[in-house]
Design a protein that fits this description.
Length: 240
């Protein structure tokens, strides 16, 4: 580019997004003189959802700032816990994060999830319409302007993904209150109310049940309850 040259320093937490040559302190970067600083940062590979502040020569500026020659830019990571103003905290996950969606629902966190690939435009539009934080490992999706809010999921391991989301957003936890299949709220149900959907062994072995108010799915402390309870207890312990 033939425009002003600036010097950009990327916070350690964001360096995985940029080439290795840009991970060692401030490095020179040519600009075109018309693009915003937000566009320049995204051109380096950093989603703006991961940027907490843009600091130019010691003062914070908005992403719409047009860089001038010789400016020194510090790209900082979001502060944790991250505040998401304007709506109750709730999430939308893309097709690749099914396990994380189920675990968030297990903890009582309002979590919408698309089990099929409906495309980035539709996901971004749903995020905006329902005011949900979009969680994804797709940087292109997180760059869509119509998103209401978003966050990059850094790990591929569900345990780490859950810990990251809980640490970043600190949502209220209400374990065992949401359906892990559809995100609906659970209510107590009697064995008699669920008799037509319980097998004989289940009816004989269990007495405490819940039912989803949306899809009607029945819940009880079955064979996998101990494993699920361990996930809940670990998540609560990690929150301190």
């Amino acid at each position: 580019m033939n425009g002003p040259e600036i010097h950009v320093e990327v916070a350690p937490a964001l360096q995985l997004f940029v080439p290795p040559v840009r991970r060692a302190g401030a490095t020179a970067l040519g600009t075109d003189g018309v693009s915003t600083l937000g566009h320049v940062v995204e051109s380096l590979g950093i989603p703006l959802t991961e940027v907490g502040a843009l600091v130019v020569d010691g003062r914070e500026v908005p992403p719409s700032h047009i860089p001038a020659a010789d400016e020194r830019v510090s790209v900082r990571a979001v502060q944790r816990p991250q505040q998401v103003p304007g709506a109750p905290l709730r999430f939308l996950l893309d097709v690749h994060l099914g396990t994380l969606a189920r675990r968030l629902r297990l903890l009582g966190v309002d979590t919408a999830y698309e089990s099929t690939d409906i495309g980035d435009p539709a996901l971004a539009s749903r995020s905006a319409a329902e005011k949900r934080v979009m969680l994804s490992r797709d940087r292109g999706l997180l760059r869509r302007r119509e998103l209401w809010a978003g966050a990059y999921i850094y790990s591929t391991r569900p345990d780490d993904q859950l810990q990251d989301v809980l640490g970043r957003f600190a949502p209220d936890l209400r374990p065992w209150t949401r359906c892990t299949a559809c995100n609906g709220l659970l209510k107590e149900a009697t064995k008699e109310e669920l008799a037509d959907r319980l097998k004989g062994g289940t009816q004989r072995s269990y007495d405490v049940f819940a039912q989803c108010t949306e899809c009607g799915r029945a819940y009880w402390k079955g064979a996998h309850h101990d494993q699920l309870e361990a996930i809940v207890e670990r998540a609560i312990a990690d929150r301190g």
